[in-house]
Amino acid sequence: MTVLPGATREEILQVVRTLGQPDYRAQQIAEWVYRKGARLYDEMTNLPLSLRQALPELLPLRRLEVVRAQRSVDGTVKYLFALADGERVEAVFLPYDDRTSVCISSQVGCAAGCRFCATAQMGFTRNLTAGEMVDEVLSIQQMSGQRISHVVYMGMGEPLWNLQEVIKSVLLLNREVGISQRHITVSTVGVVPAIYELAQHRLQITLAISLHAPSDDLRARIMPVGRKWKVQELIDAARHYTEVTGRKVTFEYLLLRGVNDEPHHAHALARLVKGLVCNVNLIPFNQVETPDGFTRPEPSRVARFRRVLEEAGITVTQRVEKGHDISAACGQLKLETARARA
Ligand code: SAH
Questions:
Q1: Which DSSP symbol is given to 140?
Q2: Are 223 and 212 in contact (CB under 8 A)?
Q3: pLDDT digit string, tens, across residues 7-57
Q4: Residue extents of the structural domains in the chain
Q5: Out of 90, 132, 136, 252, which one is annotated catalytic?
Q6: Which of 119, 121, 210 to mutate to test the pocket of ligand 1 (most atoms within 8 A of CB)?
Q7: 9-58 to CATH, choices 3.40.50.300, 1.20.120.1760, 3.65.10.10, 1.10.150.530
Q8: pLDDT for 323 beyond 90
């Protein structure tokens, strides 16, 4: 069944026509939900009462509930949302000087099992619908009182294992909420066939690939997906993506002290990505409890790694880290709340 948020303009139009209403009602309903963030049909005061009463049955309007919000001293706010079936996901509001960004979840839990990630420890429960993903942005836009300019799919879950709904959510964010595709980043653990599939849609979004290691052995040790797809296959998929879409890709590289942060790793990484239209985003490990006891490299090690890449002519960026005091890293809030309940 189509629901709001989540329904496309065409789907809303079908419902409007079924109810014998003029087409412009679809525009009004879409604006109420996707622009003004209405939570109830009763708020839609420019619709006739009879229509407001008929809509819930054909096109239910279901919004996420906020279970918990944690505000950082730097303005970052982390939200824990309850979905209609009681499952929970988190999303983060990130205000910067020149933009306002939201980091959203694409699944409840995750099946990738990356050794350094808090979400991995929860296992996988289910995919989010396009409407649930869009609602993470709508809800945060409303609560922050600020227009959201950027969205990153870097919360819980693997977006490319939920590809159809993720694409639908990107299009809704773009067409209905008004966020530029170029301001949307989808981050993947590196699901090679899905990268080819995504490329065919020729979206103007940024694809970020969590590479995190320059060799198959090391990558497989920290990321189980590395056993399935070789590093070179991933690089080939990235090259294909840039060629088909004309977009630069971002390689994310998580730095784990003494594991993948030595200069020889940086040299190998530089050789791998040389010649690709890309940049490398360095992410020092955000300390979470993991079975392997990974630790975060000190700034001098990060700087050393960065220097090797830059000297090899690679464009390097470093994630502006926010929300440390509220443990805004992937999966942390939900894990803490679940542990506190247990
Ligand atoms: N599943 C997708 C998106 C979610 S994770 C992906 O794997 O890309 C978003 C980014 O945060 C990924 O690069 C992921 O590897 C990284 N990440 C996970 N745990 C982290 C941690 N403890 N510290 C820093 N980055 C982490």
A1: H
A2: yes
A3: 999 999 999 999 999 999 999 999 999 999 999 999 999 999 999 999 999
A4: 9-58, 65-341
A5: 90
A6: 210
A7: 1.10.150.530
A8: no
